[in-house]
Design goal:
Elements: E1 2-3, E2 9-11, E3 28-31, E4 33-38, H1 54-65, H2 71-87, E5 90-97, H3 103-108, E6 112-119, H4 127-143, E7 147-152, H5 160-172, E8 175-180, H6 184-192, H7 196-203, H8 216-227, E9 234-239, H9 245-254, E10 257-262, H10 264-271, H11 277-282, E11 286-289, H12 302-312, H13 318-332, E12 350-353, E13 356-357, E14 362-363, E15 369-371
Bound molecules: zinc ion.
């Protein structure tokens, strides 16, 4: 492969002769990764949370710990982790923001980010105030020159009215990222209105979504249908730990540009569970990989996510997992013309993964990724 000075690929082929600029590496080279789900502004929460808390326990921890570090420390963590992501080979990221603390770092980073300004609020009376807040945050993001738009958080943290309004706004912007079926508690809340999430909200005197008797994704799909969706609007469902065949098939019927982000290490951290990857593959889904935040992961590393998938699903070929890690995420971000694969004219970044088990074509525990270009 021959590259221009700015990293654009000008030729791909077999090496026929060495030139003084030919470089050799031991490992495999892959295009820059796309981290399709992160909350970079929570980077200061590394190693602060207890594992295996379940969803209700996780919410209690985030409410208690979100602002324990002072602003300077929070900004430093954001900057440090963005640099780590880039040097470990991440070329683009879909990142969730609830405030403006990551905007400046993102605007200066070589890593491309699309920011999802995430909205939640369980009480219907708060809808106008919350909408005003996110519109102002959108303007702030735009003033930093970063790509950003509002997005709904989840079915369990939002009143139906807020979920409808923000879903409509996100679809109008053509991009939506939504936490979907992350826990069995979320499913139980929608199916029969009970369980730890229901208890958590009831104890705090907060409203819960309507009990529909159906899977949480079906509730969201009804809302998507009611506000209307174009064939070009891209929807990323994140986590999908407890999704099932019926939900998947209905989603495919309603949403044309549909992507499914998995965050294996985060799911293991909070729930000791993983999404039904074999079912998702059989359904031919566009799977992408995210790290989630350092509140529920010890590291923001795509290679560590790939190793986890390999360990639990040894039948899935590495080449397929790499496609989830690079190309599918680029497609979600509408950046497949530049990123996600090695093709002449693209500038995806070049990443070395070392310590490969060549005979089985798998990563090993020692594999690390390093950006070469
Ligand atoms: Zn998340």
């Amino acid at each position: 492969m021959t590259l221009d000075d700015d990293g654009t690929i000008i030729e791909i082929g077999q090496l026929t002769h060495e030139t003084p600029s030919t470089e050799f590496y031991n490992g495999i080279i892959v295009p820059g990764f796309v981290n399709s789900h992160c909350h970079i502004e929570l980077s200061h929460l590394q190693d602060k949370f207890e594992r295996n808390s379940g969803m209700a326990g996780f919410i209690r921890q985030i409410n208690r710990l979100r602002e324990v570090a002072d602003k300077e420390a929070r900004l430093k963590s954001i900057q440090y982790q963005m640099e780590q992501l880039y040097s470990s080979g991440v070329s683009a990221m879909a990142d969730i923001s609830n405030c403006n603390e990551s905007f400046e770092t993102k605007s200066k980073s070589k890593l491309y980010t699309r920011t999802f300004l995430e909205v939640f609020g369980t009480e219907e009376k708060d809808v106008p105030k919350i909408e005003e807040g996110v519109i102002s945050l959108t303007q702030q993001a735009q003033s930093f020159g970063i790509d950003a738009a509002p997005t709904p958080h989840s079915c369990y943290t939002m009143s139906k009215k807020l979920l409808q309004h923000i879903t409509k706004i996100a679809i109008d912007y053509n991009w939506l990222s939504y936490h979907n079926q992350e826990s069995w508690e979320e499913e139980q809340l929608l199916i029969n209105g009970t369980g730890p999430l229901a208890d958590e909200y009831n104890n705090r005197g907060l409203s819960t979504p309507p009990v529909t008797g159906e899977s949480a994704l079906l509730y969201f799909l009804d809302i998507v249908k009611s506000v209307g969706i174009s064939d070009t609007a891209k929807v990323l469902l994140v986590h999908n730990t407890f999704t099932n065949k019926e939900s998947i098939q209905k989603a495919k019927d309603i949403i044309k540009e549909l992507y499914w982000a998995i965050c294996p290490l985060s799911n293991l951290f909070i729930h000791q569970a993983l999404p039904p990857l074999q079912l998702m593959r059989r359904e031919g889904l566009n799977i992408t990989i995210g790290t989630d935040s350092l509140s529920s992961n010890h590291t923001l590393s795509i290679v560590e996510e790939i190793k986890t998938i390999q360990n639990f699903f040894p039948d899935i070929p590495l080449i397929e997992i790499l496609e989830w890690s690079c190309y599918n995420g680029a497609k979600f971000l509408n950046k497949e013309d530049v990123l996600g694969s090695f093709e002449v004219g693209k500038r995806p970044g070049v990443v070395l993964i070392d310590n490969i088990d060549y005979s089985n074509f798998k990563l090993t525990d020692l594999s690390r990724s390093t950006r070469l270009i």
